[in-house]
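To the team - zinc ion complex, inputs and output below.
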Amino acid sequence: MKLYNYMEGAVEEILDEIISKTQGVCKCNRCRLDILALALNKLPPKYAVSDKGINYTKISLLQRQFNADITRTVTEAIKVVSASPRHNN
Ligand SMILES: [Zn+2]
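Output:
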């Protein structure tokens, strides 16, 4: 048995969805991780116990308000990181 913070998987999944639909967002690993860190610091952790990992997709279908909050937070994080990206060019 292990403790998981399924907010991490949720934020990652929603970030990838937003990035695929939005033009002009840097897709490099540094910017992606900066966006994830910024969003996860603003969202509450959601812990669950499992021995097989957490299937976020099954949880998310039941929690539309949860998704709306994540989408808003991730969108804000994308704006912040895009305004001053920390990748090296
Ligand atoms: Zn970048």
